């Protein structure tokens, strides 16, 4: 029985490695390539879920004295599966840096431009504050 479980473990390890590699590629793709990759990853995630179910069935059939070790392995595999699904969800909506920069108009000079605008606005605010204080002083004196 444990040999079946170990075979499932090996299959799960190979499958999760493939899924991880493909998840990393998803944000860099566009159009039909991205749709096709997403469909492939979804299919592989379903296969991984099925493998986990098979592994769980195997654990139930293992004698109680050895079951604890396999149960802890199953918990870690389920956590890994949850992490893969979360990563996949993020990768589907993520944009590559190039697309992000293009959409936001982010070039290297933007922070310098923002800093210059901030300094100009600060100076303008200080001048206005001084004029208001001077006007207040005149009002108090009269």
Automatic annotation (TrEMBL):
Main location class: membrane
Biased composition (Basic and acidic residues): 114-124
Record-level GO BP terms: Golgi to vacuole transport; intra-Golgi vesicle-mediated transport; intracellular protein transport; macroautophagy; retrograde transport, endosome to Golgi; vesicle fusion with Golgi apparatus
Region ranges (Disordered): 103-124
Signal peptide segment: none
Source organism superkingdom: Eukaryota
Protein family per UniProt: Belongs to the VTI1 family.
Protein name per the record: VTI1A protein
Organism of derivation: Rhipidura dahli
């Amino acid at each position: 029985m444990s040999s079946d479980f170990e075979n499932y473990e090996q299959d799960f390890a190979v499958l999760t490695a493939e899924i991880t590699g493909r998840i990393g590629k998803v944000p860099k793709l566009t159009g039909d390539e991205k749709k096709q990759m997403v469909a492939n990853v979804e299919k592989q995630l379903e296969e991984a879920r099925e493998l986990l179910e098979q592994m769980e069935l195997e654990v139930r059939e293992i004698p109680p004295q050895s079951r604890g070790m396999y149960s802890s392995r199953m918990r870690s595999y389920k956590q890994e599966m949850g992490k893969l699904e979360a990563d996949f969800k993020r990768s589907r909506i993520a944009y590559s840096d190039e697309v992000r920069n293009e959409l936001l108009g982010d070039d290297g000079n933007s922070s310098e431009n923002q800093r210059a605008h901030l300094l100009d606005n600060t100076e303008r605010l200080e001048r206005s504050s001084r004029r208001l204080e001077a006007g207040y002083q005149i009002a108090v004196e009269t």
